[in-house]
Design goal:
The chain folds into two domains: about 1-225, no CATH class; about 245-415, no CATH class. About 35% of the residues lie in helices and about 15% in strands. It is built from twelve helices and 15 strands. Strands 4, 5, 6, 7, 8, 9, 10 and 11 form an eight-stranded antiparallel beta sheet that branches. Strands 1-2-3 form a three-stranded antiparallel beta sheet, with helices on one face. It is globular and about 70 Å long.
Amino acid sequence: MRFEYIPKPQAWQDDIFSLYVKRGSSEVSLTVRVNNSFKIENLLPDLESDIEVLAHFYGVAWPVQGRAEIVIEDLRHPPSRGGYYHSSPTEFKRTPGSRIVRLGHGSISAIDEKSGLRIEISDASELINVLHSSRPRSIEDFVREHPSPSQTLKISGICVRDIGEFERFVSEVALSFSFDLEARNGIGFKIGRPPKFGASVQEAVRKFREDSVDEPLSMTMNCYDPDAASYYHHARRSESVPIAAFLGYYQVLEYFFRRFAMRSSIDVLRRTLKNPAFDVWSDDQLVKMLTALSDELPDRTAERNQLKAVLTHAVDADALKEFLDSVPGLTEHLRRKDRLPGVAIIASRAVGQELLDQIADRVHQIRCQIVHSRGESRQGETLRLLPDSPAAALVGEDVRIIRYLAMSVICASADRLNLR
């Protein structure tokens, strides 16, 4: 990294200079502004020879040192609001043997002792603040305040040196950490997209706003499906429009139809083929296997049955029941027929597979009323969920449920994150 000052009008209080940073095989020039109290020496600890601007994320990396710093965005708000903050520290749960601890100044950190990997969310470094002030237009356009500092994700202890593999590793670790925080505490984040040099600067991000809390958390270090996570992130940020969020979370469930809906058929086939006594040349044994598969397959082709299969294999019915009972007013909402006409109610005594099946029926019926504008005719009445109708607003209660289902399925499909 190198820099050079740019002459400025005498009346200006801010200093302007160009910052040249490596980005892949090329060098990017960033025109940045700092106030007159800033000293370039403040950046010297970070101006290492191996520093690179990440190509796919909004952040920087030091591959030789095995560390990175990335700007993150709060899943609970639209991208235009930017930043990441949390204001309800009481949500954090105690978990014995935790590897995540709360630090001062509203930051969070985690250490994986086996790999030596350290992850932290804390105030942005001086370097990120300077990069965030970058304005790709002419100097005359520098008329706004310097953006306020954000909370950034910092990862160290990375053993990968190739920059492509480095970014892939950072992406997997960040996704794992985000879903841990989202699943347990509802405070997930999304990695910020890289700025388009030559376009307008992103809106200033907001700062963490909470008191210091020492609360142990747990960390699973799971590897989550990035495509499913993308659908989840979209839905999470759409919750101001309940029917849009509902469809977004439904896409998460639909994404896993093929994987889970065919699970029982796959189990039948695998048991048969693994049996040493199975004779591929025996017509009788082949007919027996095909008969067993044909008993499974017809029921798995209908969308509602595929949804039920996903919930059966991926959602803990007891945990779901506990969740429904824990949300004030939710069980009452599910029992009332007048809330969402034509949508199945959930019996208060439903448990186990019965609960999963009733929830699947309800989710599928809501989805159909949203998607099919032609409506569904029942007893001479056309049932549909119009975007501006009172019923559409009530879907917000069901969004809580389908968000829980989507998170459960993503977690159930996770693999162990490879930190080596």
